[in-house]
Amino acid sequence: MSRRDVEFQADGTTLRGWLYEPDGGPRPYPLVVMAHGFSATKEMYLDDFAEVFAAGGLGVLVYDNRNLGESDGEPRGEIDPWRQIEDYRSAVTFASGLGDVDADRIGIWGSSYSGAHVLVVAATDRRVRAVSSQVPLISGNENARRLVRADHIAGLRAAFDADRVARYQGAAPATIPVTWVDDPGEPCALPTADTHDFFLGPIRERAKTWENEVTLRSVEMFTNYEPGAYLPLISPTPLLLTVAAGDHLTPADLALAGYQQAREPKQLTILPGGHFEAYTGDNFAVSSAAQLDFFRTHLG
């Protein structure tokens, strides 16, 4: 396989990433579009998945979401799910125009927050021929109520409102850490111990462009985002849903209930362990192999 740097336009914003091309085999080849989850950058194990897919004969387009990593966009750290959804569609358009890519055999892959986005994209863009969603967010409202203590919700909503007023008056958007640094009680967007261990652990050596900061309104948009509503609309596009049984960041029970709402053709993979374990070790070996088989089956 080979990998090269690429960039493409998404509504006037330049997004940057990698294009993996399979060695040998027939041309044009099928391709999978990939982006990462909430605040994460492509170096956070997306290259590992892409290498498995490319070795299996698929092209892969991996890119950083707008306002993050090596991609352009302002304000930095702004995570707007609907803009990211449209960026997936721009990535599909870009990939469709590449000379060695079969535009009729494009799939999409997402994980965590982007695992939610690909559900929406697959339901609304029929150019997508297969969709793999790993440990996805299903309901922003329900998920937020699992992550935020009940007695803190009113204060969080007050902060959202105050930020809205300040921005209306010309102030820069307020920001919040993605994860706590020293004290688990610090206000942050994703207040779980495994989030802290993932983002501030060894992956930092690979992900040099990641920043532990997002805009506060990114969190507000998270709480209002309901991608699970699109699950019944994905069919007849094939769906693979990968769930981590011990996931408490995007809780497994919400994902499994969402899977029941999807129509055929659909396929479920259940991994042991928590949310971030889907990216490494034995779980990575199982999930990447299942996803490769799924894409090869449905993209040809």
Automatic annotation (TrEMBL):
Pfam families registered for this protein in UniProt: Peptidase_S15 (PF02129)
Alphabetized GO MF terms: hydrolase activity
Keywords: Hydrolase
Domain Xaa-Pro dipeptidyl-peptidase-like intervals: 11-276
SUPFAM superfamilies: alpha/beta-Hydrolases
Domain of life per record: Bacteria
Family stated for the protein in its record: Belongs to the AB hydrolase superfamily.
Protein name in the entry: Alpha/beta hydrolase
Native source organism of the sequence: Pseudonocardia kongjuensis
Lineage: Bacteria, Bacillati, Actinomycetota, Actinomycetes, Pseudonocardiales
